[in-house]
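Section 5.1 Outputs to date
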Amino acid sequence: MVSFKKSMDAENVSRMIATCVLHTGDWPDCNGPGQIILPAPLDGIDHSNLVYVQEWSQDDLMIHCALNGLSLIVVTNMNSRKELNFQSELIKMEAHPESSRVHLNQLFKKKKIKL
């Protein structure tokens, strides 16, 4: 899960991701820790079917990630001089394996998925 401080940043990055998927047929390439290659966004790209953008309060988003065992990357600053640079922090949500197993079993039962 990725969180942006500015909604315009989230929209721009989602358009870049959609442009990448539409042109290459694949998700963006990560060239190692802290690096991701994204093309310039194309105007008129509908990214809503590829990337989901929603406004959250920071507290609600952290609770959602914690309840679902998701790590959260908070992009605090974006800079786009020659290339797009992100400053971010990682909030890693970890749970005891037994509680994760119980939670997943509840989800599977709810969705009527048999293991």
